[in-house]
């Protein structure tokens, strides 16, 4: 069995899982799949390029393996949702968490289709089942799934290069202040609205913005769901 370096520089047996982990580490750090090359991946693992081809026939297969790993590991709450509202919020933030942990998955989802059963079960079947069990059934479950995953993809794409939107990010408070000063310092005659709204513009990539859009969607979905039939004898 081939051996390579771990992230700590130690020698360890090379496995498909280790190759995928290293590929995700590189692409997540760069937020750019184009910077992930087979040569760079081989160097990261401390093996020859041809060694990787004995595990994966091409970069495309490595990208598919990355998508399978991330999507297959989609994490939903262990307990069933107690309402449609809770289910929609849980799914929305599960998608966002997954994309934050692995920024490269946003590009993967935007450029590739996976037919892997692990990926389909983790990021589609389990989500649909979670929605159905919460009372969102049939075509409504599919529409909700489609909105939530594309909403998360769009927001994660917007937030990733704007660190002031994440309060838990390193140095985000300083970056936020700098960005607000940038907006406020624009020429007033050319940007009157942006100058006036500078302190609010920095909220655009923030989690509160994501939650606000989500709540509008949740409200519209709940209004459209069939209401439980009244039990006989129930007072009008």
Architecture overview:
By secondary structure, the chain is mainly α. Among the domains are: 10-62, Homeodomain-like (Arc Repressor Mutant, subunit A); 163-204, no CATH class. It contains 12 helices and 2 strands, in the order E-E-H-H-H-H-H-H-H-H-H-H-H-H. It has helices at 16-30, 38-45, 49-52, 59-72, 84-101, 104-111, 117-133, 139-159, 172-184, 192-196, 198-201, 207-224, and strands spanning 3-5, 11-13. A two-stranded antiparallel sheet has the order 1-2. Helix 1 packs across helix 4 and helix 5 (84-101) runs antiparallel to helix 12. It is flat. The mean pLDDT is 89.
Quantity of strands, as a count? 2
Topology as a string of helices (H) and strands (E): EEHHHHHHHHHHHH
Instruction: Classify the beta-strand content into a percent band.
Output: under 5%
Radius of gyration equals 22 Å
Q: Say what the CATH topology of the domain at 10-62 is.
A: Arc Repressor Mutant, subunit A
Low-confidence stretches are none
Biggest pleated sheet: 2 strands, antiparallel
Count of alpha and pi helical runs: 12
In terms of structural class, how would the helical and strand content be classed? Answer: mainly alpha
Query: What is the overall silhouette?
Result: flat
Q: Mean pLDDT, as a whole number?
A: 89
